[in-house]
Structures
1.
Amino acid sequence: MPFTKIEDQVELFYEERGTGRPVIFIHGVWMSSKFFHKQLSAASKHYRTIVLDLRGHGSSSMVHHGHTIAQYARDLNAFIQKLDLKNVVLAGWSMGAFVIWDYLQQFGENSVKGTVIIDELASDFKWPDFSIGAFDLPALTQFMRDVQNNRRAVLEGFVPLMFKEELSKDDFSWMMEEVTKMPESIASATLFDQSIVDYRDFLSEIKKPTLLCFGREEKLIPVAAGEHLHENIPNSRLEIFEQSCHCPFLEESEKFNSVLEQFVGSLDDF
């Protein structure tokens, strides 16, 4: 299995297939690169497809430090430098969107050709002037306590909410295996930081093309979140997946892969 060492005690697991423009898929909180298996198999026919496990997730190092969005972004930069990638497309699902925006804040757009944002808000926190946020402080506090006290029960309730239709037993099983790999200490630390970051003021500074992919089903993230991003990111396009919730790349994988292929192809003209 391929790993790249980015600093002492931290190795990031990744898989890659295909050739051409590199597209890096970045997963959500507690998830892993395995959630992008349908892209690794299909998208690699058209470009260099890379799926990455962030530190503490999936098969990457389970270190107990550095679990902030800012550090994940620094890890992403180190990964890009290690593989000497140029003109990359960054595709971030859920928390992965925050990692992309923090990367752009810290390192700029020189190495980036475009970005893909999958079902995420500009901030997960319900700020006084941002009512569509997912968490207020009492809800976040209770969620973190539940993760500490009975994480499996929390995730058994949470994972099905990511999908419009009921999951098969096999899919539910491998997903639960992936999302329980990390210890609770990492799970709660990551949850807290990703729930309070706020990129609303940064969106207008993004100049490279952005594809916004949102599921119509609003069990977790409202379509209004995508509309807000579309209004504030200058060169953006909003695509709604009518038969999806939080995971259009799994729920409508053929359509998602087609839309993504068209978007990546269009970047040659930018």
2.
Amino acid sequence: MTQTVPSSPPPGKQMLSEQVHAQLRDAIMRGDHSPGAPLKPQDLAKAQGVSLAVVREALVRLVGEGLADRLPNRGFAVPSFSDRRWQEIAEARRTVEPVVLRMSIERGDVEWEARVRAAHHRLARTPAYAPEEGAHYTDAWAEAHRVFHRTLLEGCGNRPLLETFDRMWTASELARRWSAHRAPERDALAEHRMLEEAALAREADTAAAVLVRHLTLTAAALTEESAAGNEENTAAQAGEHSSG
């Protein structure tokens, strides 16, 4: 009896879909498509010079990654600042990560300490912004940032917990970029230094408290109250500059 093998997309089409997905993902991350902006398949297909099917496949992948929403009328859009998912992800991270960090501080060995120090050094030495990469922070800094936070938790030695961290980190990447853009006054370098110092000093209570505050500030930058406050500060600064 002959068994039917499921067909797979032609290599050319699959490669094209990968390229379009990567281009759209980078464009959203750079801020080329503003929060809440529609992602019209027809327009994107025309701009990319590809078929509608290729663009739709790329958009569905972006939905799965949390970088796009599928609307009730079958359209697509960039998530909005006010989307409740960002606060829910932040709540989940504030619940899980401090617990894992405590475990990591308790169980981590000297090799873990060395990795934490190296990861922090890399993060501190990596430029956060580059003109050619737009208004949001660079891909290099984003990766150094991820590695530092993950390394802090790796001392726990619990793979399922680290996999949970990986999923939450990916789901919140867009919110992180928006948050940094909307709260430029934050001293991220100092926040990360405090995290490193508390972890290596084996001060679990302090490290957990610093981490909770760090995560809370990121989520707060996306709330309406914070946005309004930032707009007022920007207007005030503009007034000061114009008068001085």
